[in-house]
Amino acid sequence: LNLEERFIAWEPGRRFSFTMLTINLPLVTSLLEDWRLTPEGSGTRVDYAVRFDVPWWLRPFTKLLLLKFRPMFRKALPNLETYLRNNP
Fold first, then answer.
1. Which runs of E-coded beta strand occur in the chain?
2. Cα within 13 Å of Cα(65), Cβ side
3. Angle at 71 between CA 68 and CA 74, to 5 degrees
4. Which end of the chain is least crowded, N or C, by CB within 10 Å?
């Protein structure tokens, strides 16, 4: 999966959001991700929201698409933790 994204919010250590500009698979027509980071105890709370739209012919299969995308989103969190530890 290849896609081009643009950051629309960048608050170091607090929040970042981005939107999809292009994608090489026609599974989604638009995508927006919003990550909010809040210090909590000895760690960081991550509030994550994603919104996407699919072509009309895929709408009946949206739940199946979520089964595909959820693992990808969950995989991103440990990568974020590694990035934040290496870039304080």
1. 3-11, 15-23, 30-40, 43-53
2. 15
3. 145
4. C
